[in-house]
Amino acid sequence: YIDIYYVHRPDYSTPIETTLRALDDLVRQGKVRHIACSNFRAFQLGKALWTSDVRNLVRFDAIQPPYNLLTRDIEYELLPLCTDECLGVCVYNPLAGGLLSGKHDPSKPPAAGTRFANESMGKMYYDRYWNESNFAAVAQVKAIAAEHGRDMAQMSLAWVLANPTVTSVIIGATSPKHVEQNIAAASLTLSEDELAKCDEVWRNLRPLRFFYGR
Q1: Is 178 a residue whose pLDDT tops 90?
Q2: What is the 3-state secondary structure (H, E, C) of 42-83?
């Protein structure tokens, strides 16, 4: 059986009830234990959960969204929904494709062997993260890490894990050393000063503006 079966992204050509009924069949047949989704917006997840409730179908137990110091939009609606509905949150891109490792130079092309130079997915990562405003934010994060004697990548991962709604972090590694370095982030506890300065990085990226709701 499959422990967790993820719907990778919303299927705009298929009603969500149809998808959920197919997943419900798999769970009832014992082939899948839990279902989850990835890249769903808050309204799409909410609609899916409502459909499961009113149709007596299996519910999504977790969601896999992008989340890092440069990408925090899920905090507005998706994370509060997950908290309220008790969904697990397994985030991807916690280091923004490696940008938050601090190893990339914006004045040079992406280095070989990195996600940004990958033949199949490099353009996607480049379009997603490689821009002037993000590199300015990375410089701020690097300064915060240096001020507090932190490894930049570990601090960035620890920041993600500090969010109580986050269940797990999906990390990529190209060597055992990277794995060991990333795992060490789980034992870090960031100070209030560090967290406040990380919030300032986001405010510079996304200036405060009117946002409805409380």
Answers
A1: no
A2: HHHHHHHHHHHHHHCCCCEEEEECECECCECHHHCCHHHHHH
Q: Are the beta carbons of 6 and 64 closer than 8 angstroms?
A: yes
Task: State the pTM of this model.
Answer: 0.93
Q: DSSP code of 163?
A: S
Length reported for the chain: 214
DSSP result, 102-135: T---TTSPPPTTSGGG-TTTHHHHHHHH-SHHHH
pLDDT at 175: 81
**Nearest Cα residue to 171 out of 184, 157, 151:** 157
Instruction: Give me the sign of the Cα torsion angle 109, 110, 116, 120.
Output: positive
Residue 167's CB is within 10 A of a number of other CB atoms, namely: 15
The average pLDDT across 149-159 equals 96
The residue among 172, 175, 146, 145 whose CA lies nearest residue 159 is 145
Q: Phi, psi at residue 11, to the nearest 5°?
A: -105, 100
Instruction: Output the pLDDT for position 214.
Output: 63
Can you tell me the mean pLDDT for 106-126? 88
